[in-house]
């Protein structure tokens, strides 16, 4: 890593950080790049398992600046190094509690209390996995949650999508650009997706649908080889040979620690107002999948991180970098 450029100095012991960023995905590190370059002392509380969903992704082909693609963990390492280069301090501890009623704000992480004049929440969202045997072991080896990220690796292969909402439909349709063998597995006898999305799927000859069916196990040694299925109407079991399975049963925003502290919607996503980064609580800003349930892409998370960083600098009455 290059030598640190001290755009932002660390506060004296006992003094608050000007910006504390909770989270460690593309939104977090992008926000830190902006706040440090805006001369705001910046603390990143990234968590023990830092890096977000990209740490579970193999080659990322749709992030600008990498014409040959980039491994998800490598991209996160580069973002982290860039934020640290400008003076951000990274702490790999989980946030245990927050107090947004005190000024400066208080954050407890790893048993240590941190103070901050402003906070950027960038904790992201976690994939809602199936929780069946073999799934966890084969993530990144045939088990995926992002067709736009991983579909090219399954060109001409047999793939399955688990889910029945719009995201599952989008996953399946994306996969048909690379293979003619796509099976949607849905536990009900009708989709929850919009009528328009259902029509696109049912009219696509490359897509087969298994209704009233659940995945009970994912089989494979080094790669996914087949799925064990159960018909929840008659209880019968079957096997489906596949090379990949895309789980699209939803995401869970990582907002549990903020419950009762700030406004969230019925699904647990943080509410924003006025702009895509400003929360209803003054001095608290938001970036990435923790509020964005619609796009869920690394590049959009980074964009939201830019917005949150700039809004935090404006709140602190500091000039925002223009590039």
- Under CATH at level 1, the class of the largest domain stands as Alpha Beta
CATH fold-type name of the largest domain: FAD/NAD(P)-binding domain
If classified by CATH, what would the architecture of the largest domain be? 3-Layer(bba) Sandwich
Biggest β-sheet description = 7 strands, mixed
Domain module count: 2
The strand count comes to 21
- The structure class reads alpha/beta
Distance between the termini: 22 Å
Pfam family, one: Pyr_redox_2
Protein name: Thioredoxin reductase
Keywords: Disulfide bond, FAD, Flavoprotein, NADP, Oxidoreductase, Redox-active center
EC number: 1.8.1.9
Could you characterize what this model shows?
It holds the Pfam family Pyr_redox_2. It is a single chain. The protein is α/β, with parallel strands linked by helices. It has two domains: 17-126 and 251-316, FAD/NAD(P)-binding domain, CATH 3.50.50; 129-247, FAD/NAD(P)-binding domain. The protein is 20% helix and 27% strand. The protein contains six helices and 21 strands. The chain has helices at residues 26-37, 72-85, 147-150, 166-175, 195-202, 298-315, and strands at residues 17-22, 42-45, 59-60, 70-71, 89-91, 95-99, 105-109, 112-121, 125-127, 143-144, 158-162, 181-185, 207-210, 213-219, 226-231, 237-241, 244-247, 251-253, 272-273, 278-279, 284-286. The relative contact order is 0.18. The model has no long low-confidence stretch (mean pLDDT 91).
